[in-house]
Recover the amino acids of this structure.
């Protein structure tokens, strides 16, 4: 029972609620305190005050107050409702739901509480609970279309498509006359029903429905796309052809439409003449478009290809289209096409009249410089690499057009491939200076600074386009604006420098951004019902369920796990980077560690001083928002974790769940689980990796390590676990297998691949530690391979470190690599 | 090779939003939270388009399990090289429904392929067809001659006014607009079909039911709170305000 108030105080209480709703927080608090002066134990008022404080960011105090409110008035739905709202603000959804349920038990008719409960059920994907809530809400207000649609969504997402469709139909039948054409909500609801029909496999019924209602639906393009797809799926070829033709008339730059059109026409993939004729139609209809000219290069072969490529190249080079190479490089998986393109463009530059002093005018200069630019990218590309030629060509291009940002940018890229990030960053900086108002080239320059492990310069570049008055300056703004690429690159640069605290700091920042993105959907559970764009909403909900399958997440998770593994294997790194090779001598290592700790303390102190200075200056950001000071800006606390492997698991779980086909994820999962002594889970990763690529070199070494781990268990596995693990592992690497033989077979099967050779050598020195000197020599010999890339060679150098090889062995390897790639800096040992 | 795709048509490519956000912050100084992109995609799903690089082996996934039907980009995360993020003006000061280009950009490496033009044309058409926008408006930096050329010479925009110090760095903007009413859907035709259908469905055709004109629906529209462009919270403000009202 709510505690009674005098009529004056009751009216004050209503004011509190109004102030809260209008976000007049200070007034709300003041009024609440006025009531509390006379009624210090009034539960509802305490609760409202708590709610307002929570909205002002005073979470802890708010909770204390809300508990007090409840203690005073356990039977008040307001107290329980507020309690739930506070939990919700803390993202503790389970507890929030419980509190809402209490509130609802006291006040079953309350719409706001029911609504808040429903929203959380949706957010938590408690579909059965959501269906119940929505049914109640529909019963209370059947006149609102939203309530019908919401129930249909609940059924749809829970997998009951039939019921979903039925609910929508029931509402439609109450409409005596069709709503006006301008009624978007109706238009979208009808299309939503159609989408459900198609999803339940009733494509013919969906098509029939669409043909009946499609003419009055506002989303014209969606209707066209749906209809075309249905027709194609139903094999109604002639109509499908017409439908895709209509779509292409709208948008001739969509290869999906061409693919579908060709399927509708029933043209075989080797009937090049017929295929070409289709695309030619659209070149004619839309002479300025690219797709219809470009796509035929995919299937044409021989002289036909050469002719088409020639025309395409010349046209684009004359126009000076900077994306020409990016647009063509996918052809290079076919070596004949790759060579044809090379031959053609080399032909242009050798026969073109040189522009020095000629009267040809600028057109020819542009053609020529574009051609050199193209060749530079061509020779810089992995599948056609010749860095000497790349550099020659890019220099010629720059000579002709010294102001072209793209040319200078390509020069930086060539240096990157030379393995010289220092020079690459320098050249990219020059490119940036050619157009200081362009953020694209600014971003590139910053990225290259980071690749060169120069975090400060990177941020300095970024700060030219950030809002530096934001809390935390440029870096704060990059966090605010969810700039995942920068945070990831910055973290990876720190990881390379073994500054694990800062690396983890950035990786967690990206992790938190994904959390925010997941939380972002909350408001749309109600918003979208009002807006009526139901298909888009449902698509969003489904996407949110697999949010972390995004490559941005995969990448940051992989890096974070690597950082935690390094930290687990060498806990001293929590205090900052230690010089290379300091592992050899114990006393030297202690000295280095002491120095690192001192440096860490110095940096911490510096940060603390900065923090104090900021506090003194102002507690508020420019936007007036109160932003909590970061207590651990250097990530020291993150690095000094008690349990790095547990922290790694936080990144690992979504990775394995949502990107199970990534062999890198599985291999990392093995590393984490093996170290945690979770053999069954480690094996699960091995099996998954094996299913993806049985001959993967990392997997090869891991199989061996798992065998050895099982052979040398400190204590035996639980019998049930042992049985499963042994049986499963038997299929991957049988116990009776002679391991030397097994490794030798692997090595000889993959004798042309350096990564496989590296794995074989790692395995050999694991099996037979005495062979290490020989393995080291053999590893150095892999540098003689013509196929070895700088990246692979660098991985080899890291292997020596992993093997615990002597400084001398590492130096010998690095020197040999340096003489093979004299421009590279990555083999320079400090 | 670059494909121009509707962001949330059929199927939906809403999973490209983080890449679109990255494309934006790589290219432009005006940046937004992901929620602001979501807000566009979930309020005017028809209006935004994205340019992606077609994956090497094409789009392997299809909408039907047997491989029939059109292909789909969903869950493949191709590289995003351009986008147009667009909306309808929520409280048009002139009272005329019109569209607005919130943000448009194309990666420098993919310029001069006509991507921006195609993105704009697709968005404009959707504004007219789906939302009966009378015109579309946008802002452009006065120094951005390439963009100006696209809007004015290629697409047919006209300069409306100059907005002084429109950008955070103090640069002025041209406010431009272009009429779209020539692309409107013929509602009279739809209504004729409605009547035809009604007549054939029922013996007593309900001719009294005249045209639910635009204005009628208007008053039912909820009052919206203006969303702070860019840095603003977007939907957050919007939703709470509305819920407070319905909670009464």
């Amino acid at each position: 029972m709510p505690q009674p108030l005098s009529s004056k105080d009751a009216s004050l209480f209503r004011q509190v609620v109004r102030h809260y709703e209008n976000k007049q927080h200070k007034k709300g608090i003041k009024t609440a305190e006025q009531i509390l002066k006379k009624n210090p134990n009034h539960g509802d008022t305490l609760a409202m005050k708590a709610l307002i404080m929570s909205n002002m960011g005073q979470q802890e105090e708010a909770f204390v107050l809300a508990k007090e409110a409840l203690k005073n008035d356990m039977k008040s739905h307001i107290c329980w409702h507020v309690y739930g709202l506070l939990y919700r603000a803390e993202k503790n959804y389970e507890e929030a739901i419980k509190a809402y349920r209490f509130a609802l038990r006291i006040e079953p008719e309350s719409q706001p509480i029911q609504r808040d409960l429903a929203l959380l059920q949706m957010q938590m994907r408690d579909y059965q609970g959501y269906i119940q809530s929505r049914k109640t809400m529909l019963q209370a207000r059947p006149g609102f279309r939203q309530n019908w649609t919401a129930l249909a969504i609940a059924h749809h997402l829970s997998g009951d498509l039939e019921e979903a469709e039925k609910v929508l139909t029931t509402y439609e039948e109450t409409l005596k006359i069709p709503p006006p054409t301008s009624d978007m909500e109706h238009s979208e609801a009808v299309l939503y029903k159609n989408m459900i029909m198609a999803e339940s496999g009733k494509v013919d019924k969906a098509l029939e429905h669409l043909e009946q209602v499609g003419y009055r639906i506002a989303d014209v393009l969606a209707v066209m796309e749906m209809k075309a797809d249905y027709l194609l799926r139903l094999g109604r070829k002639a109509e499908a052809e017409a439908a895709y033709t209509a779509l292409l008339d709208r948008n001739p730059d969509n290869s999906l439409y061409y693919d579908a059109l060709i399927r509708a026409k029933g043209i075989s993939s080797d009937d090049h003449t017929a295929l070409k004729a289709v695309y030619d139609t659209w070149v004619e209809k839309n002479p300025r478009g690219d797709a219809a000219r470009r796509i035929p290069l995919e299937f044409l072969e021989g002289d036909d290809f050469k002719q088409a490529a020639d025309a395409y190249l010349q046209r684009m080079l004359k126009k000076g289209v900077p994306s020409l190479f990016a647009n063509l490089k996918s052809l290079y998986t076919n070596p004949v096409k790759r060579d044809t393109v090379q031959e053609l463009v080399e032909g242009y530059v050798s026969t073109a009249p040189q522009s020095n002093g000629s009267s040809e005018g600028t057109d020819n200069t542009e053609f020529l410089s574009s051609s050199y630019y193209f060749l530079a990218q061509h020779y810089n590309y992995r599948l056609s690499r010749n860095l000497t030629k790349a550099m020659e060509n890019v220099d010629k291009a720059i000579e002709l057009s010294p102001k072209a940002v793209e040319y200078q940018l390509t020069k930086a890229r060539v240096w990157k491939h030379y393995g010289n990030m220092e020079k690459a960053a320098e050249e990219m900086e020059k490119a940036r200076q050619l157009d200081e108002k362009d953020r694209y080239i600014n971003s590139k320059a910053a990225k290259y600074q980071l690749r060169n492990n120069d975090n400060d310069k990177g941020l300095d570049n970024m700060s030219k386009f950030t809002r530096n008055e934001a809390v935390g300056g440029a870096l704060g703004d990059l966090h605010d604006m969810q700039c995942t690429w920068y945070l990831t690159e910055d973290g990876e640069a720190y990881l390379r420098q073994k500054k694990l605290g800062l690396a983890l700091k950035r990786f967690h920042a990206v992790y938190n951004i994904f959390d925010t993105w997941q939380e972002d959907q909350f408001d749309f559970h109600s918003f979208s019902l009002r807006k009526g764009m139901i298909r888009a909403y449902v698509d969003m909900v489904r996407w949110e369920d697999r949010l972390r399958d995004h490559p941005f997440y995969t990448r940051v998770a992989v890096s974070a796990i690597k950082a935690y593994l390094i930290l687990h294997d060498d806990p001293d790194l929590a205090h900052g980077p230690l010089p290379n090779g300091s592992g050899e001598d114990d006393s030297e290592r202690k000295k280095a560690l002491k120095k690192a700790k001192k440096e860490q303390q110095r940096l911490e102190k510096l940060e603390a001083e900065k923090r104090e200075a900021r506090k003194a200056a102002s507690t508020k950001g420019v936007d007036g928002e109160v932003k909590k000071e970061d207590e651990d800006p250097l990530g020291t606390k993150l690095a000094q974790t008690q349990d790095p492997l547990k922290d790694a698991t936080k990144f690992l779980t979504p990775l394995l769940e949502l990107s199970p086909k990534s062999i890198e994820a599985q291999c990392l999962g093995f590393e984490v689980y093996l170290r945690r002594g979770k053999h069954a889970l480690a094996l699960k990763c091995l099996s998954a990796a094996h299913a993806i690529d049985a001959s993967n070199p990392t997997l090869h070494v891991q199989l061996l390590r798992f065998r050895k781990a099982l052979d040398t268990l400190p204590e035996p596995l639980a019998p049930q676990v042992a049985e499963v693990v042994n049986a499963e592992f038997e299929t991957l690497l049988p116990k009776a297998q002679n391991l030397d033989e097994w490794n030798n077979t692997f090595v000889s099967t993959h004798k042309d691949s350096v990564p496989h050779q590296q794995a074989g050598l790692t395995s050999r020195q694991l099996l037979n530690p005495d062979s290490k000197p020989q393995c080291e020599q053999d590893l150095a010999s892999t540098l003689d391979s013509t196929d070895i890339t700088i990246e692979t060679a660098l991985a080899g150098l890291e292997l020596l470190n992993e093997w615990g090889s002597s400084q001398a062995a590492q130096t010998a390897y690095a020197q040999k690599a340096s003489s093979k790639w004299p421009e590279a800096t990555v083999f320079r040992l400090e | 090779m670059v494909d121009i795709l509707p962001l949330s048509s059929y199927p939906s490519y809403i999973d490209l939003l983080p890449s679109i956000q990255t494309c934006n912050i790589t290219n432009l100084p005006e940046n937004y939270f992901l929620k602001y992109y979501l807000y566009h995609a979930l309020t005017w799903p028809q209006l935004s388009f994205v340019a992606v690089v077609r994956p090497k082996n094409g789009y392997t996934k299809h909408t039907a399990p047997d491989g029939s039907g059109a292909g789909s980009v969903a869950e493949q995360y191709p590289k995003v090289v351009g986008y147009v993020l667009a909306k309808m003006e929520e409280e048009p000061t002139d009272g005329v429904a019109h569209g607005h280009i919130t943000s448009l950009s194309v990666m420098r490496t993919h310029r001069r392929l006509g991507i921006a033009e195609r993105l704009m044309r697709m968005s404009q058409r959707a504004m007219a067809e789906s939302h009966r926008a009378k015109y579309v408006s946008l802002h452009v930096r006065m120094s951005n001659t390439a963009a100006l050329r696209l809007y004015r010479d290629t697409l047919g925009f006209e300069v409306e006014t100059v907005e002084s110090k429109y950008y955070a760095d103090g640069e002025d903007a041209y406010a431009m607009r272009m009429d779209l009413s020539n692309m409107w859907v013929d509602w009279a035709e739809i209504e004729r079909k409605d009547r035809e259908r009604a007549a054939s469905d029922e013996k007593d055709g309900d001719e009294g039911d005249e045209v639910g004109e635009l204005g009628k629906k208007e008053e039912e529209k909820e009052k919206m709170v203006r969303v702070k462009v860019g840095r603003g919270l977007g939907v957050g403000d919007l939703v709470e305000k509305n819920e407070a009202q319905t909670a009464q």
Q: What stands out?
A: Chain B is about 35% helix and 20% strand. The helical segments of chain B are 17-27, 34-43, 115-131, 145-155, 187-201, 214-218, 235-246. Confidence is low (pLDDT under 50) at residues 204-248 of chain B. The CA atoms of residues 52 and 171 of chain B lie 31 Å apart.
